[in-house]
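Researcher: Please translate sequence to structure tokens.
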Amino acid sequence: MSSMFDDFSLEFEKPVKVLESQIKELKEVDKKSDIDISVEIKALEEKVDILISDIYEKLTPWERVQLSRHPMRPHSKDFISYLIKDFHEVHGDRYFADDAAMITGFGYLQGRKVAVIAIEKGRKTKEKVIHNFGMPQPEGYRKALRIMKLAAQFNIPIVSFIDTPGAYPGIGAEERGQAQAIAENLAEMFDIKVPMVGVVIGEGGSGGALGIAVNDKVFMMEYSIYSVISPESCASILWADPKKAEIAANALQLVPAKALELEVIDGIIEEPAGGAHRNYEKTFLAVEELLVRELDKLSKIPKDKLLQNRFERFRNQGNGTLEGLK
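Model: Translation complete:
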């Protein structure tokens, strides 16, 4: 996938980028020369693999935050395009407007009809503005709830792709009932009588993420984050300085393993070496396999039991950790 960000690399990725550039140059030379340098190329490729493994095993929470926001990381649109066949988008909340930050519709996942709820950030500047940088407004949450209820009416399972720094905090959004829209979604989702599976593919920020994430199962990509607040907002509140976001990220322990320990999520989806942006196809296949497997399991549970399990899942979050603190 080529884009304006092809040469972009985070600070900790630069040593890898340097070696990969050398490999690319050597391969060009190898094509034009009579001298066989395949051994040297292979040695450099092995060095890259070792370097990637070493770097990514030692990532700090802040580096994980940066990786979750990587410009080339696959977005919701990419997952929908690859995984959901014959996707038909549904627009509007039937109250005010359509919110492009929230993508909803119906399609097929490996032949199974599914409803899709997804938050899209946009990649280039124009796309970011159209999708409001992945910050849904009240109409986005109302549209999502409308689709969920429609899916329940026709017994269609729901898949959610979560990638947002948080719900839009603008004055207009507040005037149109942002908090109420999210609160209604939280309450209503406990009564949606079809299987629901959510995946945090990048950022899962606060109520903005939770507004579509009251699911039977919630999973995180290996280098995604899921938190009650973004590092920048946390730093602004605690130290009145958003530049202290790195300190906040470390304090919040923004790693999937911590979310799993607190039972906030049900599992972690392993990403390709170096992150999802380095191998889209492998990433999509891993997510597809998980979604199909989980929907198969959930579809066998009676509806009343499904709702009961969903309620208990959220009611019991963190209980084990709290018991340990007593």
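Researcher: Any highlights?
Model: The first strand starts at residue 84 and ends at 89.
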